[in-house]
Amino acid sequence: MVLARLLPEVEGGRFPAKREAGETVEIEAHAFTDGHDLLAVRLHHRRAGGGSWQTTPMDPLGNDRYGAAFLVERLGEYEYTADARLDRYRTWAAGLAKKADAGQDVRVDLLVGAALLEEAAARAGGRPAALLAGWAAQLGGEAGVEERVALAARADVAEAMDAAFDPADLVEYGRVLPLAVDRPRARFSTWYEMFPRSASPAPGRPGTLRDCAARLPYVAGMGFDVLYLPPIHPIGRTHRKGRNNAVRAAADDPGSPWAIGGAEGGHKAVHPALGTLDDFAYLVREAAAHGMEVALDVAFQCSPDHPYVRDHPEWFRRRPDGSVQYAENPPKKYEDIYPFDFESPAWRALWDELLSIFTFWIGHGVRAFRVDNPHTKPFAFWEWLIAEVRRDHPDVIFLSEAFTRPKVMYRLAQLGFTQSYTYFAWRNHGREIREYFEELSRPPVSDFFRPNLWPNTPDILTEQLQTGGRGAFMARLVLAATLGASYGIYGPAFELGLHRPRSAGSEEYVDSEKYEVRHWDLEAPGSLAAFIARVNRARRQNPALQADRGLVFHPCDNERLLCYSKATAGAANVVITAVNLDPRRRQAGWVALDLEALGLEADETFQVHDVLTDARYPWRGPRNYVELDPEVVPAHVFVVRRQTPDGLFA
Amino acid sequence: MVLARLLPEVEGGRFPAKREAGETVEIEAHAFTDGHDLLAVRLHHRRAGGGSWQTTPMDPLGNDRYGAAFLVERLGEYEYTADARLDRYRTWAAGLAKKADAGQDVRVDLLVGAALLEEAAARAGGRPAALLAGWAAQLGGEAGVEERVALAARADVAEAMDAAFDPADLVEYGRVLPLAVDRPRARFSTWYEMFPRSASPAPGRPGTLRDCAARLPYVAGMGFDVLYLPPIHPIGRTHRKGRNNAVRAAADDPGSPWAIGGAEGGHKAVHPALGTLDDFAYLVREAAAHGMEVALDVAFQCSPDHPYVRDHPEWFRRRPDGSVQYAENPPKKYEDIYPFDFESPAWRALWDELLSIFTFWIGHGVRAFRVDNPHTKPFAFWEWLIAEVRRDHPDVIFLSEAFTRPKVMYRLAQLGFTQSYTYFAWRNHGREIREYFEELSRPPVSDFFRPNLWPNTPDILTEQLQTGGRGAFMARLVLAATLGASYGIYGPAFELGLHRPRSAGSEEYVDSEKYEVRHWDLEAPGSLAAFIARVNRARRQNPALQADRGLVFHPCDNERLLCYSKATAGAANVVITAVNLDPRRRQAGWVALDLEALGLEADETFQVHDVLTDARYPWRGPRNYVELDPEVVPAHVFVVRRQTPDGLFA
User: Fold this and answer.
1) Could you read off the pLDDT of A382-425 as tens digits, one per residue?
2) What span, in angstroms and rounded, lies between the C-alpha atoms of A162 and A40?
3) First to last CA, chain B
């Protein structure tokens, strides 16, 4: 007998699978044996770290697969394992029933069953032993064959045999697998990134955290639930970069928020121009009042003026000439940035201090962090740090901002990052979008990697947004919001359609907020704010859009049209999205729906209700027509309405 | 640093991957690290069980994959593992080169490199230490910068640094993975099954092993290289089955060869009507003279008259009434067959005796066995038995005749079976053929499971062969012979087109050879022998058809046409097969070739040479027309001929 697989299992159980509180976790086992014996497979689960195991029989799903599920209600770690057993009694009972049904003489077979019960009685103690022995005597006794066959089929007899199984017939899975349970926002979140210093309503006056608070109704009104701020700390002056990343800053240039640390403090301080810790506390409270939370940017690096450089020179690497090693990516140099030396002999104190930065901001009400470039710090550091934080604060969300090679991005997610940036911004063609999101939305990747899709960031103004016009912005927003249960935009640059790069071939914005204070006219004509609000309302109203699982692509005879659906369990809620990937031209084509994935019958008439335009279309069967004009709306977000018995569509 | 994967790896290294002698085994590692350091990854391999490791540097393949290969020349087990190391020196040297190329001042960088060399010198001993120290002094010395930069780029310096690496920078894979090397026929074989007792040229006289020998020119002439015989042992009389599986045999009914054992002997005896052990030896020699070998059927079961039943009653299970337990699959009973009790207290002696059956026939020149219903015997038994046999006879081929659930069939292959029967006979539609053979021809399955495809067997006359006529036989033969590097037919039933079932809905042949002696007219008009010979000649002449790897399906706009190709490494030999799956009607359509898989340029004119008809067609680009008529030949087997510089196609 072989208990070959228990799923989900991430890297042989080295890392936890990820789920969210309130979810029913479905576990699958693969078990089989030589011969034709039936198996009894059981799932055992509990909260990690002790306590009693709860045992659930696993149901055969066909093809030697067995399934069971349990509800996770609390945050933190659970664990599970399984065992499988030759079910000699039910195997015998099933054979007996078939023979009896075929009218065969089963008197000798009844004696075989009686022997099984006697052996079990010998293993069992007390009352069960007596019961089993009694049944054995009846099976092998003088009663009529029909009566004895009926006894053999009784559930209570089989259950008593389950309890008295022969330990030699049992195999254990051999590994206990971990499961990390996060809060629901780990799965479904909608992020809005903005620079506080550009949040002032008054041109000429830099913005503050209080201005951010005043901006909350606008951001919440668009349907976002996470307000993410680039670093809010004091900014260094040495080697400060000027506007448009100029090597020398002018006297009044504010510098990059990622050159962290100055005379006013480091990672635990608020830039005086933005306000105070009290102002930050006010922003956190106001955000909560709008149903939002504040996410901070954690960039573990220092400007040359950071207090750490003076107080802890042992945390930085020295060059042979005695200077501190600045960041570099040869031949590029970043002399305004000093990386920490994670391998320094003083690493323990350094790691503890870095952990204390998280706990400091957690103490100020932050439960979500966007971590800058985690792939340039040691894997072991993140695994340790995230475990330390989550032990006391399992509600903390870590978003990994790593745009590096796939295996490294996946490993960071395995090490504990709750969500991860993706390659979404650079996936433009239908086939590459389909292949990438099929990979992300299915096991094994979907068990540990939660994508967070960004059509733009302060560092990423894609070629398509530069050249595609309003249609490209709308299409990319719909793709992000419907392909990803979590997505975000960098605003107001996004909703205002900023599209000019610093130079040809660059993905940097011209006059980027990274290096200067900007002022935004949120009321500018052409703002996509209302459109974004509609899209986010569709996300809130449709549970299918709140998970990455359940994504299915549907072929279309026009490759510029991309069609896909998401469905909740049992297809209770189904959303079909169709996007015109060509930002310039109207595109039309026939979609071939996978009706089974949509829970629809081949001949069923259903209604697709476009929640972006409120238009409704009657559809039927797999082939349906789609036509999308980027000058109007380049996408449909269709909720499937099925016909109710009274003939309406709901 | 993470060395995450080493491929092939079967079930975490629990079972060996399979390859064949003479093959270059390609190993792939997945390794990555945080940060931007270069890695040095090494493969270590050796013959299993000791000896020195051979070490090969693994080349970066992109996307954190590294590859290396080694040639396996001997049969038996090899093993391999890997390690990965931060290559601090090459990382530094690459950065230095970029900075120097950019015209930067690198004097401080040279001192960083000098320190690396000094640390290595301190780790190294003897002459390497002196060399490294000398280079360190030069790098940090007074020579010109250009000269010192050139020193840093020298291969001998990097190699000396390789040898003096810091053990703290190395991670080992942690597992040593097994590799089983079989003889080439394990991969590429062509089987012909026939009943010796029907091999007589004279109607009315049953055939013998000598008659089989006389049949060899015919079988070898069709291009087969394995002659597989159903059991050749004495047949029991108790509960003997009659013609067409009648419950009672007539006095002159010969019985089923799988009801093994009688007064004349058991599994180590030859049925007296077939001849003697000397006759068998003659057949083995004659087969070898025709480039063939003889495969025997091993069915571990006994007729009630088998000497084991009398001499070793402890090897059989008793029913409560004292009778021996016969085989059953409720409500079906097989009272002519006694299964062994592998869990008997006397199991050790039983297992040893069963092993001795293999060694007996190995002693009589047999190196290939078709094992009957292995899934009804314990997994542990097969793993033990095959390892025992292969220790002294690594050239033995075990063909698993299990038609059971996929996970069990795969597990038997993992336990050691060299080849396996498949579901091929029941895969008729294009999509199901494509999905099944994509699964079989790719890792992980292709690493341990070698399919052997049978369009028919004495137990399997498929509905398609019953109703499809000659076109169906030809199409199924071409599918088997080109989808599978190994395939077989049950003849002469196949080449003579036998298609009548015993009853409607049955896959049994009427008047099956399993229960009676038949006489065959091999010269009958309509025999497919010549066609089969052409197909098998194509297999011998084209290495692409001699492996299961390299299979690619090409879409066709007519779903009744199936098109696929196989190619050797570098597309040196490419065969495109197109089959009309409709045995009744001519079908035509346009194939969309995956030119990259075929090693062809988009605008290249090439020739497809049908080796079945010798017709040649000029093709160009991906879209090409195919038309196939089952009344003529329902398949093309095209060898791709590319244009040579002199304008010919070769």
Assistant:
1) 999 999 999 999 999 999 999 999 999 999 999 999 999 999 99
2) 9
3) 49
Q: For chain A, how long is the longest CA-to-CA vector?
A: 106
pLDDT of residue B22: 96
DSSP output for A188-241: SEEEEE--GGG--SSTTS---HHHHHHHHHHHHHTT--EEEE---S-B--TT--
- The verdict on B543 touching A (C-beta cutoff 8 Å) is no
What is the structure's pLDDT at B649?
83
Please give the Cα distance from A90 to A158 (Å, whole number).
7
Residue reference for tokens 């003096």: B164
Q: By three-state DSSP, how is residue A103 classified?
A: coil
| B111/A320 Cβ within 8 A | yes
Question: Which among B64, B330, B377 has the least Cβ separation from residue A405?
Answer: B64
Total residue count of chain A as it appears in this document: 650
Classify A444 in phi/psi space as left (phi over 0), alpha (psi -120 to 50) or beta.
alpha
For B492-504, b/e burial (b = at least 16 CB within 10 A) is: bbbbbbbbebeee
Please tell me the distance in Å from A379's CA to the nearest CA on chain B. 6
- What is the model's pTM? 0.93
A587: which 2 tokens?
A: 């595109």
pLDDT tens digit string along A258-295? 999 999 999 999 999 999 999 999 999 999 999 999 99
**Alpha-carbon span B308 to B311, nearest angstrom:** 5
Give pLDDT tens digits for A321-365: 999 999 999 999 999 999 999 999 999 999 999 999 999 999 999
pLDDT value at A49 more than 90: no
Bridge partner residues of A554 (DSSP): A563
Q: Is the ipTM of this complex over 0.85?
A: yes
pLDDT band at B542 (very low <50, low <70, confident <90, very high): very high
Q: Residue A142: CB partners within 8 Å, gap ≥ 6?
A: none
Mean pLDDT across the stretch B486-514? 97
CB-side neighbour CA atoms (13 Å) of A445: 20
CB atoms within 10 A of CB A142: 7
What does the buried/exposed string (b/e) look like for B157-194 if buried means 16 or more CB atoms within 10 Å of the residue's CB?
beebbbebbeeeeebebeebbbbbbbbebbbbbbbbbb
Tell me if A541 sits within 8 A of A611, measured CB to CB. yes
- Are β-strands B226-229 and B293-298 bridged in parallel, bridged antiparallel, or unpaired? parallel
Subunit contact A4:B407, Cβ cutoff 8 A: yes
pLDDT tens figures, B388-403: 999 999 999 999 999 9
Please say whether the beta carbons of B27 and B59 come within 8 A. no
Structure tokens at A199: 């949040």
| CB-CB neighbors (< 8 A) of A84 in chain B | none
A203, burial (CB in 10 Å: exposed 0-12, middle 13-18, buried 19+):
exposed
Say what the pLDDT of residue A498 is: 98
**How many other CB atoms are found less than 10 A from the CB of residue A610?**
18
- Rounded to the nearest angstrom, the minimum Cα separation between B332 and chain A is 8
Chain A partners of B405 at a C-beta cutoff of 8 Å?
Answer: 32, 63-64
> From start to end of B318-441, where are the E strands?
327-329, 332-334, 338-339, 368-372, 397-401, 419-420
DSSP label at residue B501: B
List, as one string, the DSSP characters of B449-493. --BEE-S-BTTB--HHHHHHHHHHHHHHHHHHHHH-SEEEEETTT
Cα torsion A371, A373, A376, A378 to 10°: value is: 20
Q: Catalytic: which of B83, B211, B286, B372?
A: B372
Span B98-146, pLDDT tens digits: 999 999 999 999 999 999 999 999 999 899 999 999 999 999 999 999 9
How far A29 CA sits from the closest chain B CA (Å)?
Answer: 12
Q: How far apart are CA B209 and CA B192, in angstroms?
A: 15
